[in-house]
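Support case: Butyryl Coenzyme A complex. Customer-provided input:
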Amino acid sequence: THKSCHAFQPASWHLRSQSVSATGAPRWNDHDTPEKFNFASDVVDYWTQMEKEGKRGPNPALWWVNSQGDEVKWSFRELTDFTCRAANVFTQTCGLQQGDRLALILPRVPEWWLVTMGCMRTGIIFIPGTTQMQAKDILYRLKESNANSIVTTDALAPDVDSVASQCPALKTKLLVSDRSCEGWLDFRSLIKSASPDHTCIKSKTTDPMVIFFTSGTSGFPKMAKHSHGLALRHSFPSCRKLLKLKASDVFWCMSDPGWIAALMGTLFEPWTAGSTVFTHHLPQFDPKVIVETLFKYPITQCFAAPSVFRMILQQNFSSLRFPTLEHCSASGEAVLPEEQEKWRERTGLLLHQIYGQTETGFTCGTARGSQVKPGSMGKAIPPFDVQIIDDKGNILPPNTEGNLGIRMKPTKPIGLFMLYENNPVKTAKVECGDFYNTGDKATIDEEGYIWFLGRDDDIINASGYRIGPAEVENALAEHPAVAESAVVSSPDRTRGQVVKAFVVLTPQFLSHDPDQLIKELQEHVKSVTAPYKYPRKVQFVPELPKTVTGKIKRNELREKESGQKQPQ
Ligand code: BCO
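Agent response - structure generated as follows:
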């Protein structure tokens, strides 16, 4: 009985250059740059209209479950209704306007979709973050981004309250909870009472839509800003070919809602095709729950970090022949050929790699139905022109190691990030000739397949999380036992890499029990920053290797680590 939103105007489709594909999904061509685009009105409201016209099956647009047996199923019509209400909550109750910023720190709850699309409808720039963040992480993000509003749960409300006085731009705090909290607006009851009548802004494709904080090599996380073009790209034929999703598919992306992978995997990619977005609340990662879920629900495609597939394979489940699963994709870290082979043996399914960064979204991948070359990240996804370049931006010949670059001159492709907010130095630093330099080392073969080789800096990729060493070293430095530390990656069978800290102890801690101290340092890091960054390995050393100018030689430590036998 929900009223439909006034934003949808079918006539507008005829004014644009895009065509309608065989499956009914709106499309543009790979190199189209329409002046205006908004994912909420151009894609989601399109599917709402298809539902109204009886041109889409009865499967839900969003299918949410948790381990307690709760379930939420929303149609596109309901999504349009609820997200228009969210838009009205933001503009009318919170007084937010186009260009304002909203920090979004929610676990996998249905309201996450309402907030993201409510922001898109109003032009409010949203800033997703993981719920693993601690008060200090939240403070840094709120201050740096000048966030005017925050949406989170009662679990993080006390952390936000403890830092809110230091964030002058923060005006409204919205709580997603069954309980009320003083000083916080109740998002759920506001949605219920808000009007579903809202007119979506006519955003320019180049208008800012979202800001992600990415890990810094040497300093604090930086803000990668994306335009609405990030979402538009998923309507391009090359992107549609990657997973070949259909309206009848049920797609499960397991990424934490704080990462760009979630935006692509639980919004843009499946809903462009009109597919069902499936999600399991999963507060704690558990391979058993993943496997049970793949058996229980009619999921046809899944998308997760390679560590998830690895952890499933390591559990010795009696059967991994999932009844409805047809296609699997992995992204966030490298997949080894033997892992792909093991997954195929156990499930009968190929594991397709997709590569992307926070700055780039989907960059290359092995398209469904095309040849899987084991260990390869697949081919470039147009409009990205991906090349292997040298340090001056010259294109290198096939099978030569170099930097993975995306051409950004003379024309910046749709989907590549706009800039690092407030950081022109860093923005300029990633430009290399005509290319954006991803900082990843790779090779390309004669057929255009790309192989990942490693980072050219100190960033650690632990189970798909990119972690800057400074974030962990700063956290360690706050503990009285730490005189100084150096943090590097260490190879790991399950997570690809883990964080390893070399620690020089202060004199008063030299006689402490080392095992006890390691646990204490690990708990300390978990308590001052997002726990996924904690050093899973710690080694006490009398001193750190340094250059004559006193800079820590992290590469020396890293090389030593990678030369070591991996723990079994
Ligand atoms: O392993 P431990 O038990 O020692 O510690 C874990 C958690 O238990 C703990 N923790 C979590 N929340 C906590 C907490 N501790 C205290 N308080 C809390 N509130 O901290 C550790 C968290 O580490 P984790 O998340 O790496 O471990 P977990 O739970 O084993 O999860 C495994 C994965 C594989 C599910 C997880 O690492 C993961 O989700 N990785 C993928 C990250 C990802 O999505 N990356 C994509 C980025 S976007 C991109 O690459 C572009 C793609 C186009």
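The pocket of Butyryl Coenzyme A is lined by residues 132, 255-256, 259-261, 285, 305, 307-308, 331-332, 356-358, 362, 463-465, 526, 531-532 (CB under 6 Å).

Case will auto-close in a few days if no follow-up is received.
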